[in-house]
Amino acid sequence: MKKTINRRDFFKLAGLGGVVFASGLGNLSSAANKAGREGNAYDDFYFVQLSDMHWGFEGPPNPDAKGTLKKAVTAVNSLELQPDFIVFTGDLTHTTDDPKERRKRMAEFRDIVSELKVKDIRFLPGEHDASLDRGEAYQEFFGKTHYTFDHKGVHFIVLDNVSDPGAIIGEEQLQWLAADLKQLPNDAKIVVFTHRPLFDLYPQWDWATRDGAKAVELLMPHPNVTVFYGHIHQEHHHMTGHISHHAAKSLIFPLPIAGSQPKRAPLPWDPAQPYKGLGFRRVEAEVKKAEYAITEFPLSKG
């Protein structure tokens, strides 16, 4: 079904969650206003990013661990206009040393997200899914750990910076990235999905990719690059030169601000505000200008 978002629809959608951030590349609400003034509709698209579900986790930081992912599926399905596609940016499941249990969790996760109305779903692994077996079980359920796809004029690149337990992308994948970028025009609209940040956010807490700078260096010649990632369980925005990087909230428990406490321990569950700090985001793309507007949705408005 063709998904055309006109100005009225845009503001109706924005009213659900509130646009809280527009990337450094621009603001789609301005485009919507312009389209409205000119009496035109704009035919762009949006996708939904969900991250760090940790299916299989149990503990006080989320006493509703078995219900939260299903709640998120319901929330996405209730969006008035469904996204073009959905991306899960890693840690689909929580780490377990038992290979049989690992696969059981992946099967359960896959079955739950199959209830999403949108069937174009893109996955990438987190270290909880892939670091113990270099992505072997993950690939059985979700396919390749790094790949590309194109959608309405935007080139999407999925990078795997978790299957190597050393938190690296690796030379082989970097060469693959270089070859992929080489075939693109310099002004191509590029979106990169990763699990870990590609920059050194806080290496003491494993919030970095050891060779991430090499990937950023390969991307730098292209003026229209945006990176979306997970891993740190909170909304965060950062620029490396002209490249913007945006971390998404978690769907299991929030983590503290980098360096704000001695250990990277989950923030405690607040019974007065259940699901506080959990959520997902919508990313609207204006293809012609390579602009993105990010809207953060809480998992619960309560």
UniProtKB/TrEMBL annotation:
Calcineurin-like phosphoesterase domain: residues covered: 47-234
Pfam families, A to Z: Metallophos (PF00149)
GO MF term list: hydrolase activity
Highest taxon listed in the record's lineage: Bacteria
SUPFAM superfamilies attached to this UniProt entry: Metallo-dependent phosphatases (SSF56300)
Protein name: 3',5'-cyclic AMP phosphodiesterase CpdA
Native source species: Sulfurirhabdus autotrophica
